[in-house]
Amino acid sequence: MEQSQGSYPPPVYRNALEPERERSLRTLTHVLYALYAVHWLTGGLTILIAIIINYIKRPDVAGTPYEAHFEWQIRTFWLGLVGYAIGALLLLVLIGIPVLWAVSIWMLYRIIKGWLYLYDNKPFANPRGWV
Q1: Measured between alpha carbons, how far is 101 from 70 in angstroms, rounded to an integer?
Q2: 89 falls within a domain
Q3: Residue 64 belongs to what domain range?
Q4: Per the confidence metrics, is the pTM higher than 0.70?
Q5: Which of 15, 17, 37, 102 has its CA 20 to 30 A from that of 91?
Q6: When comparing pLDDT for 5 and 21, which is higher?
């Protein structure tokens, strides 16, 4: 394709997405939030599926607005897992149940917050934060 003299090709941004790819990544991110949201109903199976997909597709979302959502989801999984493990250990001294409830509420909050940010196309100020 020839360019006229004095014209320049449009800049290419690392996070610029074609509409079809953008739609695909957005849909995938919605599906992952759904898998995280129903993990309590499946005994944790869907969250394992979601975290595997997060790690497999992580390179595809690098440099896109969805990278922060993947970071948020991955941190939710790992911090939640640590919280559940601590709660399970504390069941031996009878304070584990409130800890497990607190971790569940915290995870639910993060899933809802992330999903709403995705729905509203709102960027995360700090996807590595606790809340």
Answers
A1: 24
A2: yes
A3: 19-119
A4: yes
A5: 37
A6: 21
